[in-house]
Amino acid sequence: MFNEADLTALAITLKLALISTGLLLLFCTPLAWWLAWTRWRHKYLLEALIALPLVLPPTVLGFYLLLALGPNGPVGGLMDALGGRPLPFTFAGLVVGSFVYSLPFVVQPLQDAFAAVGRRPLEVAATLRAARLDRFFSVSVPLARAGFFTAAVLGFAHTLGEFGVVLMIGGNIPGSTQVVSIAVYDHVESLEYAHAHWLSAGLLLLSFVLLVAVYALNRRLRLLRA
Amino acid sequence: MTIEARFRIARDDFRLAVDLQLPGQGISALFGPSGCGKTSLLRAIAGLDRHPAGRLVVAGETWQDDARFLPPHRRQIGYVFQEASLFEHRDVRGNLEYGLKRVPQAARRISLERAIALLGIGPLLTRKPHTLSGGERQRVAIARALAVSPRLLLMDEPLAAVDFERRQEILPWIESLHRELDIPIIYVSHSPEEVARLADHLVLLRAGRVLAAGDVHELFTRLDLPLALDNDATSVLEATVSGHDEEYRLTRLVFAGGELVLARQPVAAGSQVRLRLAARDVSLTLARQSGTSILNILPVTVDGISLSDEAQVTIRLLAGGVPLLARITRKSAAELGLQAGMEVFAQVKGIALLN
Is residue A143 within 8 Å of residue B88, measured between CB atoms? Predict the structure, then answer.
C-alpha cells in the first residue's frame, strides 16, 4: 500500500493539477477567444509558440524555466526586486512549470470549441440586445461547454503526468515539490517495486478514467450533432 | 417615420454605394441577384458590420453617422437570418425569452404570448431546436425577433434555406405580421414570387447600386427595368373580392380597371387580395372579342412598348390607371400597329391569387 510519503506526493500532485488547471482556464479562455476570432495575419506565430511544449523535451523546457525563474533570470530578477522569494524548488515554481507545460492542452480545445460555435450565434445574440460580455457568457460559454470540459480534463491529466519539467525546477523535495511521477522514479531507483506499483497503477487508473470521460463526452456530442 | 440609409462599402471584391429612403411602414423588399449586396446592406443597417462613412436614421433617431455608431445590441431591431440560427442549448421558450429578458419592461410592446400566437408556435415551446423541422425553426426565429418589440424588422431571405412546401407554410405567417403589426419590415429576397407576394415597396439592387426604388406595382411594370423585360414578367395588382358565383364555382373581383373572375377561392366577399398576372398570359385585341372562352377582358390604354430585337416585346398597359403587362411577339405588336395612347382590349388567361 501507499506509505506516508507516497500519500503526500499524491496530495501534492492533485493540488498542483487543480491549481494549474484553474489558472490555465482563467488565462487561456480569453487567449483562446482572441485566437479564434483575431484577423491578425501572423497569429500562426503565436499558435506555434503555444504548441512548443507539445514537442520540446520537458528537460529543455525545464532548463529554460530554471534559468528564467532563477535569481539571475528575468522573472527571478523581477521577483527579487519586488521582494519575493525565488521560484525554483518551490511549489509555486512547480505551478509555473505546469502552467507552461500544459498550456497547449487547454488553449487548443477552447480555441477549436469557440471556432466551432462560430460567429452566427453571437450575431443573433447581438440582435437580441445582448452586449459583448453578456454574449460571451450567455452564448459562447454554454455552446462551447464541451470544449471547456475537454480543456479542463486534458490540462489536469497532463499535469498529473509531467516529470521532466517538475524534476528540473522542483528539485524533488519530499513534502513540497515531490510529485507522484518522481516518487515512482525514486521507488524504482531504490528497487521498491511494490510501492512503485501502487503509485503507478493509481496514476494509470485516474488518467484512464479522465480520458474515458473526455472521449465519451465527445462521442455523445458527435451523435447529437449527427 | 422613414428610414434613411446611406452606405458605402468597399472590399477587395465588392463595392456597394446606396442612398435610400424607405417608408416607415409595410414591407420593403431589397431585391436582386445573389452578390448584388442586399445582405451586406441589411447587415449594415443592423450594425452587424461596421462601415465608415455610413449614415442611418430610423424614425428621426440617428443610428449611425460620422460621429456615432450604435452597436447592434442597442438598435431596436429584430433580425431574422437565412438559417434560423436558434440557440441549440435552449429550448424554444428559452430562445424566445433570450431577447425578451434583455428588453426593459417599459419598452415591451409585443408580449411573448402575442409573438407565440402570431407565428403559431404554442405547441413547440418545450421542444429543443434540433427536434424541429426547417419551417418550425424559422417560425421560432421570427417569433424570437418579434419578442424584443423591434421598431424595425430585418429579414434576410428567411425562406431561402427551406424547401418549397415549408415556404408555403411560412409565408402566410409573414403576411399576417404585415397585417397585424405596425412594424416596418425590410425583407431581402432574390425571388420575384416572394417579392410579388409580400412587398409594398421595392428596391432593385444590381452590383451594389440601386437600380430603382419605389412602389412594387410600379416597379414590376416599368419598361426601363429588367423585371418587365423578362419572359416571366408579371404585374401585381390589388383587388377587392366582390362576391362568388356558386353556380359556376367562380370568385368575382373588382379593381380600378374593371372586373375579373377566377376559379372559386376561399376568400370572404369584401376582403382585399393581391393578384399576379403573368405578362405572357395577357393577349391584346383591337376590338372586344366575342365568341371567346376567355372571361376576363379589360379595356386598356397602351402606355408603352419595350424596345427589343428579340421575338418578344413587353407592352405596358393601363387599366383604369393600374399598370399591367402583356408579353406578345414583336410581329403581333407591329401587325396590330400598337403605339402609346391606343385603346385596346386585354384578354387575361391566367390570374393567380397571392394571398
Answer: yes
